[in-house]
């Protein structure tokens, strides 16, 4: 082979080697890019997953009408189980007193009232965040002594002489509802006492300090065999809507929203209806 031929052959071999090497380098670069992309995607996915798994924590403070005590206590326990690391604290009482406390600056995250009228105290003061929503309704029932020894069968029977009857204060939703029911039946009733909330009125009967009290159906249900309930038609004219709202001054907004969601959920509604509340 001539010297010229050998030089040409050597040159072709060198070019081929460089082409193969170049192709290999390109392949490595492509693999590196894919790996980098996968790592970036994985990091983004992990970051997203981490962000979506943020857990609720802290205390959720709920101000609620006295008639919600049993059902909300149950829901509070369920909330704490579903969200480890959280705690739900309650302040139960007359809705008017709770509303006054809120507008006076008492710290709370959620307010559940037994009437739109008492909720309006909070919204008018600008202390509600958003529009209150009705989550349940409630109606009245007569609570009598066990066995109903006075044979009370109607609202009119409470007007009879000799009976010690207790009502909620007129400023409290259960008292306002009782007045509305009495007006519907064109009845006049002078109670032996007006109580600050529905639980206080019911306790008078449980302790046998009164013969009867006009309270909510849910409270008669919660009392079990300590009292006996008597339904009356005038209660249909005095059904109370219960609104709930997150408060503007809430310290735990995420916890408050989660509690509101539980109350409105199918699980929450089941607890409430089993307690005797009516669906909104």
Automatic annotation (TrEMBL):
Pfam families: SBP_bac_11. Residues 1-32 form the signal peptide. Belongs to the bacterial solute-binding protein ModA family. The keyword Amino-acid biosynthesis does not apply. This is Molybdate-binding protein. It comes from Streptomyces aurantiacus. Keywords: Metal-binding, Molybdenum, Signal. Residues 36-55 are annotated as: Disordered. It comes from the Bacteria. One of its GO terms (molecular function) is metal ion binding. Gene3D superfamilies: Periplasmic binding protein-like II (3.40.190.10). GO terms for biological process: molybdate ion transport. The keyword Endoplasmic reticulum does not apply. NCBIfam families: modA (TIGR01256). Molybdate binds at residues 67, 95, 198, 216.
